Amino acid sequence: MSSPPLLVQYVIIRGDLQKVLKWSLGAIIAQACHATAAIVYTFRNDPNVMQYTKDLDKMHKVILEIPDDISLQILAATLSHDNIDFKLWIEQPENIATCLATKPKKMTIFTDAKETTMVYELKKIIEGITKVTPAEQRLYRDELMMEDTKSLADYGLTSAVAKAQAPATIGLVCKLPDGSFEALEMTPLSNPPELPDVMKPQDAQGHEQTVS
């Protein structure tokens, strides 16, 4: 059985609408409905949106909460900086930003694996998340298709290049219903935030103590 592309739409809603402003649950749900409908209609001719709405019973959404208006505006600015399409919903007549919805896009999966992990084992991990079997997956390191019988280290994926603050990226494509595989599409990750001082490595001088 072949699988469609792994597409997901994110909806981020202000938590203070209910907790502070005392909006009803129905009014809050309406905000999400407005934002998702607007972004899907705006990009109705986009290939990912067309695929996402092809099977209406299998649309995948992730609903998240964000504290307040300032946090929502910061998120909107970050998405704009990273060229991620979204709709920021401004409710009228209140004229306040209540939530945002992203354009359906291919899913990004974060997982942990050892250098000695075989490519086939990684596919099994992905299967546990996506329900896409290893036979319906192709993994790519840059533009090189990875072989099931090789390890991640064979493709240069070691602890020296893959870290929590700068994860290594592997491309995933899935088998389509017509038997072909979707095109490889890899979106660069946002620049990670700088490590807090407490997590930065200290040089030898930093540990020296002066005794008087």
TrEMBL record:
Keywords: Hydrolase. Its EC number is 3.1.1.29. SUPFAM superfamilies: Peptidyl-tRNA hydrolase II (SSF102462), Ubiquitin-like (SSF54236). The keyword Nucleotide-binding does not apply. Residues 186-212 are annotated as: Disordered. InterPro entries: Pep_tRNA_hydro_II_dom_sf, PTH2, PTRHD1, Ubiquitin-like_dom, Ubiquitin-like_domsf. It comes from the Eukaryota. The keyword Chloroplast does not apply. Residues 96-159 form the Ubiquitin-like domain. One of its GO terms (molecular function) is peptidyl-tRNA hydrolase activity. It catalyses: an N-acyl-L-alpha-aminoacyl-tRNA + H2O = an N-acyl-L-amino acid + a tRNA + H(+). This is peptidyl-tRNA hydrolase.
